[in-house]
Amino acid sequence: MSKRLINFSAGPAALPVEALERARDELLDFQGTGVSVMEISHRSPEYDAVHNEAITLVRELLDVPDHFKVLFLQGGGNLQFSMLPMNLLHSGRKADYIVTGNWARRAHVEAMTVSGEAARVIASTEDTVFDRLPSPAGIEVNPDAEYVHFCSNNTVYGTQWHRFPETGGLPLACDMSSDIMWRPFDVAPFGFIYAGAQKNLGPSGLVLALIREDFLERCSEALPKMLQYRVHAAKNSLYNTPPSFSIYLLRNVLDTFRQRGGLAAIEQENRAKAEQLYGCIDRHEGFYKGHVKEKAHRSVMNVTFNLPDAELDARFIAGARELDMVGVKGYRKLGGIRISMYNASRMSHIETLVSFMDEFARTAG
Ligand SMILES: *Cc1c(COP(=O)(O)O)cnc(C)c1O
Question: How far is residue 16's CA from residue 38's CA, in Å, rounded to a whole number?
Answer without folding.
Answer: 20
